[in-house]
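User: structure tokens for this one?
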Amino acid sequence: ARGLGGEVAVALFGSGLDGPAAEAIAVGADKVLLVEHDLLDAGGVDAQVAALEQVCRQTEAKVVLIGRTALGRDVGPRVAFRLGAGLAQDCIDIGLDAGTGRVVVRRPVYGGNAVATATFGEGDPQFVILRGKVYEPLEPDPSRQSEIVRLDVELEPSMIRVRHVET
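Assistant:
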């Protein structure tokens, strides 16, 4: 964020987000975006995709980092496609190209036998799906203060195309 002249904003989706918002601030978030909607708790991937797309458009995000989880691997590529944005999957390192100010990522290729370095072309946002535990977490500082912003998203039941019946 410093290299781009921006701030670190964390978007949280669902309900009951005050605790997670405080945790995000304690570990370094400059701003926490709370997106609360009933469909985000029960709507699955379709609701998450629609909500993240709206958040990216509202905030004009430059770089979007998503964890390489089952949900992240589904949501990230779909939102990137909707926004016409570049996407790098399964990244193990992220940085900035000093000359262009574009994101540079490293990711394993050929079954992990080699590591490729890639950068993004023109246009934002730049989507990066980042492996978990590739960076040590920052020490929490409960005294940190940051801005919490509640964002409204427009979600309708008709947006949900898949329904969980049972496990």
